[in-house]
Amino acid sequence: MIEETIRKLLVYAKAHLGLDPEDETFLENQLLHHYGKQAPYVGAIDEKAIEALTVPDSLIDEIVSYDTDVLSLDTEEALRDADWVLGFLSPRPSEVNRLFWEKQKQNDRLAMDYLYDLSIHNGYFQKTKVDQNEMWMASFPNGSDLCITINLSKPEKNNKDIAKLLTKVSSDYPKCRLCPTNLGYYGDAKHPARSSLRFVPMTLAGEKWYFQYSPYGYFTQHGICLQAIHTPMHIERKTFERLFDFIDLFPSFFMGSNSDLPIVGGSILDHEHFQGGLPLLPIFHAKDRRLCYQSAKGSKIYEVDFYDTALKLEGNDREDLVMWGEKILNAWLPYSDLSCEIIGKEGDVRHNAITSIARKQGQTYTLYLLLRNNRTNEQYPDGIFHAHPEYFSIKKEGIGLIEAAGLFILPARLKRQLAEAEISAKMEGDTYLEAYPDMKDFSALIASLRQGKSAHDYVNQVCRGILENVAVFKATPEGEKGLDRFLQTVFRE
User: Fold this and answer.
1) In which region does residue 446 sit, left (phi positive, over 0), alpha (psi from -120 to 50) or beta (all else)?
2) How far is residue 139's CA from residue 136's CA, in Å, rounded to a whole number?
């Protein structure tokens, strides 16, 4: 009965959502009215068991069961109702904001942990689903480690659909999934429920921004920083200033910006935003291939020994780093080098972009700039500096900042397909195609398995190969000369 579920929810909210007992009767009566009930539950419940819950899943299940079985709602509407209930029992946004910044004055991790725990306890962060994701490290004897994940909670996206966002006229409310107007939005068939969403406002480079956690985190405490206004992504000097302002406030976190073009950017290009979290990205552990330049103010610019083309700017003077970041950006955007297949711009269509990531360790700032190009041609219609067709069975989506930095998010279908490949490898010839027709795209994997290698070994090599495809200047003598030619345009007095 829903009255008992309401009673359980109130016990849970007092234990995990900061519900003040003084508000308990008020909230109970509101929920009873919501469900058309006249009086509360008076029986006994196991309060200790409810207080011991780490996620609200079992309580959400009770709401959904009541909504579908008794109220005859469809499952999606029932889930939206459950999200509304958890949002109703969560602290109001103003209270979250007050507590967050009180804690930030003590310690930035204390504040972030508070918002993260709240996002788990009110069901916004889908912890149970995320915990089912598979993750492993890929080590190479002659290169940096990569982190590989199969994300069972993330739908696979199409680069061509993402590109349409740049020209889409937004008229719906909320305009996109990142707009601040999502706060408390009930949701419908076209737009996800956001009743339990909580974020905190902050000022970056003199502008209003918000920070929230991703509902399906790709790494530890995966957060999203979004601009208050709905405006397309655009990489400029102010991008670096915003990133540095964030890590000054929260030095425990890294923060990065996707490129502002399809194929080499993220999945949402129509709303300016950053992504960050606790520093687990493999590029942070990569060695420096060489020191390229040292400024008069002590800032150092390195070429990173990584699979794609990455520069690392490091020093204690953030303004100097911002200035050099801007110089590299401005030099790269129009840059062309036909010997390396690089064309910066064709007519009004720009191809060059930069992916940027900022960290702070003590008083030292680090700004990673990954050089990107989204040009296509007849041989590579999905992108010259993108995963090449032989790798599409593993990964076809765009390579955003997280993957360009070495943490791969592979589609959920691979969990099934890798298992099917293991079985297929034990069958004669290509007879496996009758039972597993989509294995026609996995013949290279099956051949590798038949040679005694593991499925993970194969995936590891593919992910490395994808980042090598992404590199605009390849790790070859010709590629190094190409990078030198570009850097000469940056450092030229």
Assistant:
1) alpha
2) 10
